[in-house]
What we know:
By secondary structure, the protein is of the alpha/beta class. The protein contains 10 helices and 7 strands.
Amino acid sequence: MPDLPSVTEMFDLWGEVALVTGASSGLGRRFAKVLAAQGAKVVLCARSTGKLEAVKAEIEFARGDAVCVALDVTDPDGIAAAFDAAEAAFGTVTIVNNNAGIAKPAKAIDMSHEDWRSVLAVNLDAVWFVAQEAARRMAAAGKPGTIINTASILSFLVGNGMASYAVAKAGVVQATKSLALEVARHNIRVNAIAPGYVLTEINRSFFETDAGQDVIKTIPQRRIGDPADLDGTLLLLASGKASGFMTGSTIVIDGGHMMTGG
């Protein structure tokens, strides 16, 4: 059946330029490598380029293309400069993965103004401003593109000590919808991934404790997610061939956790 695309063709990202924030560790590191493996040229962004160099080396060892760019996502001038660097290296960015994020757990009545603002600045404000800059440049270049924001199941649930994080991630879902509505006419799609608990170097030690194991037992699949569990969804949203008629959506990947009500 020659009119049916192969899986390889469906998720082929050759010719695309992907900018990934928070690419030095965790999900950002994984996402960058997955996009590169499918042929995208990847712009690796984080506050420090030290760890990014290791990611770049892994991508290049696998015969991919990558460049490292220092970026503090809370700095508007830095965001513009990162896109300038990306364009100088590879051309117009056509895939953005907004992945940089922080958490500062604290009881709501004890949370400082500074901690509240820092979480919102990274997890919501920066997501908006990176996406906005990307959309402006795609539209100006007349190029279709896709913006993939990282939300969370806490976009929809709440948890003790996680108010600032949950509020920010809820905002990411609405920001995704709002921008998607306005830039759709430019053939720019905006979607989000909302992971549940996924094992990374940051939380690994906790999930090895008895308390962590108790949390895992609350997940219907009785396991914590692996970063690889997000690969398919990332590629779905990154590929215009696979999800060209999809925008403003948030895909939950949580092993069924949300069905329990948190």
